[in-house]
Design a protein that fits this description.
heterodimer; A: mainly alpha; 3-stranded parallel sheet; 7 strands; B: about 325 residues; mainly alpha; 2 strands; elongated
Chain lengths: ~550, ~325
């Protein structure tokens, strides 16, 4: 695995032996006195100067968090403070959440990074307090009367380093906000802090490089149009090998009824590509009139992790392309952050999409009234509707070689509220589905530990720590129900959960929901299926045996 | 320890001020009239300022935390409270938070065990302690309204009877007095006893707890032990209702301790975390509707931005696209 990752036994030892506040150990020091340090494995590499320049962000330079000199611009305190003031004026959430936390501690043991590291500054209440303590210093009256009364701090370089460390140890998953009696969402604070850190040139390459690529080529991986098409065409060949069916996707086709947009991880990354094969099989099965765009070839929006403007800029392409192609509406693939942006921001930022029509399923006639304004439908909603109306021929036995559980991705769960559709589909396409323990699923789901742009190789140690609560819950169903397949509807999950499983739960593989749909679909003109889309043998469908159907 | 002792000392000092002031300097007019009016003014003006200050800031995006199934297909049951799509759903959501502490009821406790293994247990103590604390305070405040009216209405009489139905002492013992003290002790001990709480608590977390304890203890002492004459107290309270500035009658200095600490709380309120009382009604993640795909939400400062258009993209890749048989706009 990664050279930035200690052996499992070492990490287990750290979990079990290192004193931590999670285990009731209290050092007697105040939280702001507690040390932290940058070392290999706990930070992501900063963005390369050329990437920063390309995006027009400030202060491009070569530096490392382990350096003594971060080469900050002159007057960086003022830049940050002014930016904070501006955002306090623009967002009620930020102001309200800084003012009204009562430090009741309900959020304290809810963050996956706190549970995995035991580092108290990962308790959401203290993560926000990193900012709150500085914000409070802007009201110095109380502090002068009673020194230390409200825990105010000056914005010095140590505080800035803390911000950089801990706001990139937050995946904006919002689990804390579920338990907060005030509804305080630490993700809002993380979003703002990352946005202002950008202004003094503190960022990470794993976020900015994809953003730059996406801006230029249309997708995170920087894939140019012809390569994009070639890749999907090679998937078309793979589908033919496995099923004997030739699917026929089109690209940038004007006049198609539906534009399909999914994260580029589904086109290039393993195991995302199998999910892509599932989509292609499904669309072929129902004869959907759709097209895929090479220009708007990315659903995931890493701009969300840099600044509001950048998020808007990348997202704008979706509507722009839908308008150019003259489609009726947009269908969105399985993705977490993409759906957070589409659901919460897209129409506000880049709407109204009045050049599109209210989405109607061409197969069932169902009107997706819940997407009346954005004109963008989630593929799980679309497929669930197809199954409910009996439009798919499915043979769930074709997934009998898998024993599944379902991972709710945080953005779809807590940023959108989609829980039932994927479960409905999963129950229809496979026979073995077991839920993880109740405090770890649905609205209480745990992040994969690598969301919000910290899925970097060099961050592997932190990822394995942050993902531990998720892995631990999977282990429970693995032991109890022999689960070996973790199904999810998020492209980052498909990229980040496989190493997490290899590390904590070897033998558990990660699947996209529509990969299982693709396995189960009984296609017209198909050959006798003996293998699933991964070319793994399917149980009960071996060569020479009678098909049970 | 310092962060616990300092607030204790502060409250003790604050309690001493009116005692000395009235007992030895005869400043009953200052503590009975001037300060209460000033404190009320600060409370009302400060609280209104905070609310208006929050409300005039925009909520540019729909950022509701969805903790239940959204409204989607007809046959999928929407969780109307946890994923509201109509104003009344959100109203129920917020009120259930305000009245019943819904989110805290969900609370659990994570434990790291050997293995390593994480286990989660139900943990409703904070919910129970918080609920008892807030409800007892509310009942106590409402009970006090009898001082402010010549004829308290039937609701207040009922409240008083219900609160004292145990009827074990003379004067009748109020359950809420005991409950609020129990809840306060729990909330303080919880902050001290749990390592996480000890670390994250600041002086500003202990101070209001001790201040309220001081108020409650002074109140209980007056009612059951020192037995203050209530008639001049009632006269003073009725005077407040008429905005009268006449001097208070002869009341024991313990009363002024009680009153002064209340004034301190009132002044402290708008400038501290206690404003959560107002914030909870307008927290964006809770009050908003999860209908952002159904209905366009406006952002007052949404400015147009320049993005890379399809035309620019095609200009760069046209030849490659043509070779790959991807349709292009310009040949």
């Amino acid at each position: 695995m990664s050279k930035y990752l200690p052996k499992q036994s070492e990490l287990v030892k750290e979990f079990e032996e290192k004193p931590s506040v999670l285990k009731g150990d209290y050092e007697g020091r105040e939280w702001w006195e507690m040390p932290f340090e940058f070392r290999e494995g706990n930070f992501c590499f900063p963005a390369k100067p050329e990437v920063i320049k390309d995006l027009g962000f400030p202060n491009p330079r070569k530096w490392q968090p382990t350096d003594d000199d971060w080469k900050l611009p002159d007057g960086w305190q003022k830049i940050l403070k002014d930016a904070m003031k501006e955002r306090l004026k623009k967002y009620r959430s930020l102001k309200l959440y800084l003012d009204s936390c009562v430090r009741c501690g309900a959020c304290a043991d809810k963050c996956h990074f706190f549970l995995g590291t035991g580092d108290p500054k990962n308790m959401p209440v203290l993560r926000a307090e990193l900012v709150r303590s500085v914000y409070r210093n802007d009201f110095p009256m109380v502090e002068k009367i009673l020194k230390g009364f409200a825990g105010a701090r000056k914005l010095d370089e140590k505080v800035l380093r803390e911000w950089y460390m801990y706001f990139y140890q937050c995946t904006e998953c919002r689990r804390c906000s579920v338990f907060c009696p005030m509804g305080i969402d630490t993700a809002e604070i993380t979003i703002m802090v990352r946005e202002i850190l950008q202004l003094v040139g503190l960022n990470n390459n794993w976020i900015l490089a994809p953003v730059s690529n996406c801006n230029r080529t249309g997708n995170h991986l920087g894939i140019e149009p012809h390569t994009f098409v070639q890749n999907i065409e090679s998937l078309v060949d793979d589908i033919e090998d496995v099923t004997g069916v030739k699917v026929n996707p089109t690209f940038n086709r004007k006049g198609a009824e539906i534009l399909f947009i999914t994260p580029s991880g589904d086109v290039f990354g393993d195991p995302g590509v199998y999910t892509m094969m599932g989509y292609l099989l499904l669309f072929h099965h129902i004869g959907l009139d759709y097209t895929i765009s090479t220009y708007a070839s990315e659903g995931g929006n890493f701009g969300f992790f840099t600044s509001n403007d950048m998020m808007k800029k990348l997202n704008a392409k979706m509507y722009h392309e839908a308008k150019r192609l003259g489609v009726k509406w947009i269908l969105g693939g399985e993705c977490g952050h993409m759906w957070r942006v589409v659901h919460q921001y897209m129409d506000t930022m880049n709407g109204p999409a009045d050049f599109l029509e209210e989405p109607v399923s061409p197969v069932t006639g169902t009107k997706f009234t819940n997407a009346r304004a954005t004109k963008m439908v989630h593929i799980a909603e679309f497929t669930a509707d197809l199954i409910k109306n009996g439009k798919l021929r499915l043979d769930p036995k074709r997934n009998d070689h898998l024993r599944t559980t379902f991972h709710d991705s945080c953005n779809v769960a807590r940023g959108m509220g989609m829980f039932e559709e994927p479960r409905y589909i999963l129950n229809k396409v496979c026979n073995s589905f077991h839920e993880m323990p109740e405090n770890t699923i649905r609205e209480q789901t745990f992040c994969c530990g690598s969301g919000s742009g910290i899925n970097a190789e060099e961050y592997m140690e932190m990822r394995m720590k942050g993902g531990f609560p998720r892995a631990n819950a999977v282990r429970h169903v693995r032991e109890k129900h022999k689960v070996d397949s973790l199904v999810t509807i998020c492209a980052i999950d498909r990229a980040s959960l496989p190493p997490l499983m290899r590390y904590w739960n070897p033998g558990v593989s990660v699947y996209g929901l529509h990969e299982l749909v693709g396995n189960a679909l009984v296609m017209d003109g198909e050959k006798k299926r003996t293998e699933d889309l991964r070319e793994d043998p399917m149980a009960g469908f071996e060569d020479g045996e009678e098909d049970e159907d | 320890m310092k962060k616990i002792l300092m607030p204790v000392a502060a409250v003790a000092l604050l309690a001493l001020i009116p005692y000395v002031g009235v007992e030895y300097a005869g400043l009953s007019y200052l503590f009975g009239v001037v300060i209460p009016y000033s404190a009320t003014l600060v409370l009302v003006a400060g609280f209104l300022f905070r609310m208006v200050d929050w409300l005039r800031r925009p909520v540019p995006f729909t950022i509701v935390s969805t903790t239940g199934q959204e409204k989607s297909l007809d046959w999928i049951r929407q969780d109307k409270i946890e994923s509201p799509s109509k104003p009344w759903h959100a109203a129920v959501r917020v009120l259930s938070e305000v009245l019943l502490f819904r989110s805290l009821f969900r609370n659990n406790r994570a434990e790291l065990r050997k293995g390593p293994d994480l286990a989660y247990g139900s943990h409703k103590w904070l919910w129970l302690g918080g609920l008892v604390f807030h409800w007892s305070l509310l009942v106590i405040v409402l009970r006090h309204s009898r001082f402010f009216f010549l004829e308290p209405g039937p609701f207040f009489q009922f409240l008083e009877q219900a609160d004292s139905f145990l009827d074990v002492t003379v004067p009748a013992f109020f359950m809420t007095d005991a409950l609020v003290l129990a809840a306060l002790s729990f909330l303080v001990l919880r902050r001290i006893g749990d390592a996480k709480m000890r670390l994250l608590s600041l002086q500003t977390d202990y101070f209001p707890l001790f201040l309220i304890t001081g108020i409650v203890v002074a109140g209980i002492a007056m009612r059951y032990f020192a037995k203050i004459d209530v008639m001049p107290v009632k006269d003073l309270a009725l005077g407040y209702m008429k905005f009268s500035f006449s001097a208070p009658g002869d009341i024991g200095s313990l009363f002024y301790v009680h009153l002064f600490l209340i004034c301190v709380l009132a002044v402290y309120f708008p400038f501290s975390k206690l404003v959560h009382m107002g914030a909870i009604f307008i927290s964006p993640t809770r009050v908003q509707l999860n209908n952002s795909r159904e209905k366009r939400h406006k952002n007052p400062w949404n400015k147009p931005i320049k993005f890379r258009t399809y035309a620019e993209y095609e200009d760069e890749y046209r030849e490659k696209m043509k070779k790959a048989n991807i349709p292009v706009e310009k040949e």
